[in-house]
Amino acid sequence: MPLPGTSKLSIANQLAAYFLLSVFIILFICMMMLYWGLSQSLKSHTVAYMRDEVALIVALVDLGDLGGLSRKIISSGEKEYAKLYVRLLDANDVSVIETPSMGHLIPVKAFHSPVPYNLPALHDFDKIKLNDKVYLAEAFAVNVTASRLRTVQIALDISNLEHVLRDYAIKIFATLLLGVSLAGLAGRYITSRGLRPLTAIADKARQITASKLGERFSSEIWPRELSTLANSLDVMLDRLQESFDRMRSYAANLAHEIRTPLGILRGEAEIALNRKRSGEEYERVIESSLEEYQRLTRIVESLLFLAMADSREVEMKFEQIRVNDEIHNLQDYYAEYAQGKAFIVLCDPGVFVWADATLLRRAISNLISNAIKYGSEGGIITLEAANQQQFVEISVSDQGCGIDKEHLDRLFDRFYRVSGGGTANIKGSGLGLSIVRSIMILHGGTVAISSELGKGTTVTLSFPVPTNNLSS
Q: How far apart are CA 83 and CA 73, in angstroms?
């Protein structure tokens, strides 16, 4: 079953159909113009001939040359093609002179009432059909004398011309069918040939798997119209390859993080079961196991939060929060765990942020926790908040060993930890900054980190200020 908005016809068939329709319309218009041009040309020549013949007959009538008129009338009907029939009627509509055989072919009553002689030059002749013959006919009145009127009836047999037009129309129609058929075949071939690069791209796409993400489309030469598509596909593959690499790294780091506490739990359990031990020893084993359980719980809860944040399933309750109060509350809470480090708070009491209170506390708490763990012994941790035009910036700085610039871009990756530099023995899962970044994304803000070796690290949270934000 085709997807909504899609067609059962392939692109090649659709293009061929549109091309065929265009060719049909163009050929039809051209053929009709040719037919109309021919018919108009024949008609104009025929009318001109009729008018010349009428003028000659009127001239003979005006001269009273009945002999010449009789010879003209009789000779006009002797032509094999385009026979001209002429009849001269008296005042009682009785034939005086007429072309032989005109009587039984074209009776007097077949003509309309006579019109003055000057009118035929101003209007077309009538077309009449009699006995499978087609005639161009006219009847007009002429003055033989001042008191006598005569009627001249003239008819030109145009049956052969009509036959020519019919034959020409049939040939035009046959030519139209042949042209459309040939155009359809040519269009189908040209379309199929033109779409071969798309087929090649599809074949190459089918060859790309999770283990072959290094393949690229731009490595081959494509038509100009498909170069943009090839480049876009390469950009997509770059993103996919980066995502797969991160997933592999994430899976490996996750396995490592979980394997460590599980190994500890298993080792302690095996040692405890190796021989009978005292109650105090069992208590120490249980206490140590609880620490590892708590570590596993924190990892699972952090991963669950990150998964919910990625899918935007975190329930948010935005409110206006005085940043100074939150920072002082967190300072008081972490003062007990500061391990001899001092806090400095630089925050204007008038700084407010529009955020979820729980998530805001969690983000700042993670930064303070990192500053305590990685700050220098007896160093200072600075908590600062300020209004910066469209943003409210909250930063946490420490005076630790700092981080090399090559690691800064990856610090927000999950489970990523900087090895060496005196941090190898510091416990952590490498999820704290990932959670901070997810919290900032949920708030529509950003997080930035700057660091200098030997001087310390600063992490800055930037919360956007709503246009309708209320000031205290």
A: 11
- Please calculate the CA angle 310-315-317 and round it to the nearest 5 degrees: 130
**Other CB atoms within 10 Å distance of the CB of residue 205:** 12
- Residue 133 neighbours by CB under 8 Å, 6+ apart: 105, 157, 159
The domain locations on the chain are 11-166, 224-310, 318-464
With contact defined as beta carbons under 8 Å apart, do 320 and 354 qualify? Answer: yes
User: Does the pLDDT at position 423 exceed 60?
Assistant: no
Two structure tokens written together for 200: 């090649």
Q: Determine the 3-state secondary structure of 190 from DSSP.
A: helix
CA 394 from chain centre, in angstroms, equals: 42
pLDDT tens profile 377-416: 878 888 999 888 888 999 999 888 888 887 887 788 777 7
pLDDT digits (tens, 9 = 90+) for 301-341: 777 777 777 777 778 888 998 988 888 888 888 888 877 78
The Cβ-side half-sphere exposure at 331, using a 13 Å CA radius, reads 19
Residue 181: CB atoms within 10 Å: 11
Q: Which fold has domain 224-310?
A: Helix Hairpins (1.10.287)
Number of H helices, E strands in the chain: 11, 13
For the chain, the average pLDDT equals 80
Rounded to whole angstroms, the Cα distance separating 222 from 140 reads 76
- CATH architecture under which domain 11-166 falls: 2-Layer Sandwich (3.30)
Which CATH superfamily does the domain covering 318-464 fall into?
Answer: Histidine kinase-like ATPase, C-terminal domain (3.30.565.10)
